[in-house]
Write a structure and sequence with these properties.
Elements: H1 2-11, E1 17-20, E2 23-26, H2 35-42, E3 50-53, E4 56-59, E5 63-65, E6 86-90, E7 98-103, E8 121-122, E9 125-129, E10 133-136, E11 141-144, E12 146-149, E13 157-160, E14 162-165, E15 168-171, E16 173-176, H3 182-185, E17 191-196, E18 207-209, E19 226-228, E20 274-277, H4 294-297, E21 308-311, E22 330-338, E23 344-349, E24 356-357, H5 358-367, E25 375-379, E26 387-388, E27 404-405, E28 410-415, E29 421-428, E30 459-466, E31 474-480, E32 493-494, E33 505-509, E34 515-521, E35 527-533, E36 539-546, E37 557-560, E38 565-568, E39 574-579, E40 588-591, E41 608-612, E42 615-619, E43 629-634, E44 639-644, E45 651-654, E46 660-667, E47 673-679
Parallel strand pairs: 1-3, 2-4, 4-6, 5-7, 6-9, 7-10, 8-11, 9-12, 10-13, 11-16, 13-17, 31-34
Antiparallel strand pairs: 14-15, 17-21, 18-20, 19-20, 22-29, 23-28, 24-27, 25-26, 25-28, 30-31, 30-36, 32-34, 33-34, 33-35, 35-40, 36-39, 37-38, 37-40, 41-42, 42-45, 43-44, 43-46, 46-47
Length: 683
């Protein structure tokens, strides 16, 4: 075979087929055979090199892939294939080592440009007849018609890795393309799944999750962390409380017990949504041993303080069991017959270990006979709310620009009320794609080159994040349209509002005071009110504007009604501010005609103050303010605090501040500054 490869390599051909109808063995060295040939041939533009595998290929080493042919002849678009044989990973002298399926390509070193949909491996049937661990790196993708254990060595596992790379979380992508039930295509206990969540533990946000296992996954993996389960509790399979924060009257501020998963041995179901709120990194889990589930799992509390969840059949010290990877042909089926009196929310978990193409999902929705869909939303890691793909109307207002729904994430389909519905829809394996994005998914509607895609026309997009963690965010968009109205119009998409005190929100206000994610407005509109709901704890946030250059208006300006500062978003697209629960929600105005009543700050926003607990936080200070005097007065004129500016752009002043109104004066620096700061009763 080496001689054959040498001949082919030196022939410079780009159309090579290896046909194996018998038995082929790849030694532990591994790089020379099969995939090694692909690598070297691919450097000779050999993108049509492929292996027709109708026999058995035994691999005792690693498998490397660097051609755009998927290695084996298994078409991605169909389960029919030229290759119907077996790729068997066999024992390497009983080493119990870690072995890898990965790529040589230099592109894989650059997360911003690597596209695993070009470099994944499409296996026929896979047999793991080894005690070695078969590792799929976080940014690698593979297909397999089926995955079964061997007859000689049965201790091996396929590990789908999840890691932080270049500041984002990535998950290995696996499509089980063979048709049938999960039990027929994947052996029980053979696949291990990791889930990286470390990026989201600095901010107390909800982490959407759908179990990749079928009816055996236990909640013990999340013991000590809050788990919500939004229930399908309405008519036509609708989920009434999609964040799982139902609160019975009289409202007591507590989530009802039926929407919390509180026992570690509770079975989680595939395709159903769960919302996990991981406790902050460094949390003392030993404080939860009596009521947080740890006493049931009996585990060392420090084991919970990790950046990953591991799904491998052993829930800490609970009795180990084998888990069945969810690989059924259908993810979910929904039917409806009637006229709903209210919006129907179908909340669905992508329980596959592979992203779902949003383009393919939209095709399936459009093809569903007898059902009218209103909006499709996706809720992914880091997002503070469900984000719509696009609005209605033409041209549509693009809010999120998602091209895929990450594996184990949640999406939402809404059906309008007062509309006759009579049909069904099934969503399954045909929607799966090996995408290139992190499991937080893309959150900008700009292309990677920084140029707005052609789908974005005459609109402005906003993204809000904590200043210290841009991986956590919320989105809103305003589109200017000739046929739009200040009130209700076809472009408007309701904000799926999240009332959780630990989640912040960003949305615009329509003419009839609806909260909107996408807001269509007439082209002659002067301004639109944009609201923020901060978390219960005061934080510093940043709002980033994009696609300003697409607007047909005079421009776009953001006015902070609390500080009276205005910024030109064309030249200063990022605005930083501090907000707490005592602030007005309707804080901002987005102007499309240059404001004339307020001086536009082209340099920096004005200094302002906000109370957080018993500390007064001054923000937007600059270097010229250092060492200048600061005085805090009450309404009787008494000077309560006198100090100097010691840091910028913000400084915290401690003291005893009862609820009330205070006057803060800063003397010197870039000029005298005076402001009124209110401390509410609940701060």
């Amino acid at each position: 075979m080496i001689l054959l490869l040498w001949v082919l390599l030196n022939a410079g051909t780009s159309n090579v087929v290896f046909l194996n109808t018998g038995r082929m063995t790849v030694d532990p060295g591994g790089k020379i055979y099969v995939s090694g040939a692909m690598r070297h041939l691919s450097t000779s533009n050999a993108d049509s090199v492929k292996v027709v595998q109708n026999g058995i290929t035994d691999i005792a080493g690693n498998l490397y892939q660097d051609a755009k042919t998927r290695v084996f002849d298994v078409p991605a678009s169909s389960t029919t294939t030229s290759s119907t044989g077996i790729v068997r990973f066999v024992s390497n002298n009983g080493s119990k080592a870690k072995r890898y399926i990965t790529t040589f390509t230099a592109d894989s070193l650059n997360c911003s440009s690597f596209d695993r949909s070009l470099y994944y491996v499409a296996f026929p049937n896979v047999v793991i007849d080894t005690n070695d661990s078969l590792v799929i790196p976080a940014r690698m993708g593979i297909d397999a018609l089926s995955i079964h254990t061997g007859t000689t060595n049965t201790g091996g596992k396929m590990i789908l890795r999840s890691d932080q790379l270049d500041g984002a979380d990535y998950d290995a992508s696996l499509r089980v393309t063979g048709s049938g039930s999960s039990a027929s295509v994947v052996d029980v206990g053979l696949v291990v799944v990791e889930r990286e969540v470390g990026l989201y533990r600095t901010v107390q946000s909800l982490f959407p999750f759908a179990s990749p296992f079928k009816n055996t996954q236990m909640a013990g993996y999340f013991a000590g962390n809050w788990i919500r389960h939004p229930l399908a509790d309405g008519t036509y399979g609708s989920t009434t409380y999609i964040y799982g924060n139902k609160d019975l009257a009289p409202k007591d501020g507590y989530i009802d017990i039926d929407q919390y998963v509180i026992y570690p041995n509770t079975t989680l179901a595939a395709a159903e949504p769960y919302l996990v709120k991981p406790r902050p990194a460094g949390f003392d889990y030993s404080s939860l041993t009596s009521g947080g589930g740890l006493s049931i799992t009996g585990s060392d509390p420090s084991l919970y303080d990790k950046g990953k969840f591991y799904f491998n059949g052993s829930v800490y010290s609970m009795t180990p069991y084998s888990e069945q990877l969810f690989a059924d042909d259908n993810l979910v089926s929904k039917s409806i017959a009637g006229i709903p009196s209210s919006t129907v929310n179908w909340v669905i978990g992508n329980s596959y270990t592979c992203p779902i193409s949003t383009a393919e999902l939209v095709k399936a929705l459009n093809a569903a006979s007898g059902i009218t869909f209103s909006t499709a939303y996706v809720y992914v890691a880091g997002s503070q709310s469900y984000q719509p793909f696009t609005s209605g109307g033409n041209p549509a207002i693009v809010v999120s620009g998602y091209s895929e729904i990450p594996a184990m994430s949640i999406f939402l389909l809404t059906l309008p009320n007062a509309t006759m519905q009579n049909g069904s829809i099934s969503l399954g394996k045909g929607l799966q794609r090996h995408g290139k994005f992190s499991h937080g998914a893309p959150s900008s509607v700009r292309s990677q080159s920084g140029v707005s895609p052609s789908a974005v026309e005459n609109q402005i997009n906003f993204r809000m994040s904590p200043e210290d963690n841009s991986n956590v965010y919320d989105l809103a968009a305003i589109g200017l349209r000739n046929d739009a109205a200040k009130g209700v119009d076809k472009y408007d998409v309701d904000k799926i509002y999240n009332s959780d005190s630990q989640c912040f929100q960003l949305y615009t206000i329509s003419g009839e005071n609806r909260k909107l994610s996408a807001n269509g407005m007439p082209t002659d509109i002067d301004y639109v009110t944009m609201a923020v709901k901060p978390t219960a704890e005061s934080k510093t946030y940043k709002i980033t504007a994009t696609n300003v250059e697409t607007l047909s208006s005079e421009g776009a300006w953001l006015k902070d009604m609390q500080t009276d500062s205005v910024v030109d978003l064309a030249t200063q697209p990022i605005y930083t501010f501090t907000a707490g629960k005592g602030d007005s929600t309707e804080r901002f105005r987005v102007y499309f005609v240059k404001p004339v009543s307020t001086k536009v700050s082209e340099d920096k926003p004005l200094v302002y103050g906000v109370f957080t607990g018993n500390h007064l936080l001054l923000d937007h200070l600059d270097e010229t303010d250092l060492n200048t005097g600061v005085s805090v007065f009450d309404t009787y004129g008494r000077e309560l605090v006198k100090c100097r500016v010691t840091s910028y752009p913000r400084m915290s002043i401690g003291g005893t501040f009862p609820a009330g109104v205070y006057i803060v004066k800063i003397m010197g620096g870039s000029g005298k500054k005076a402001m009124r700061v209110i401390k509410p009763d609940n701060n």
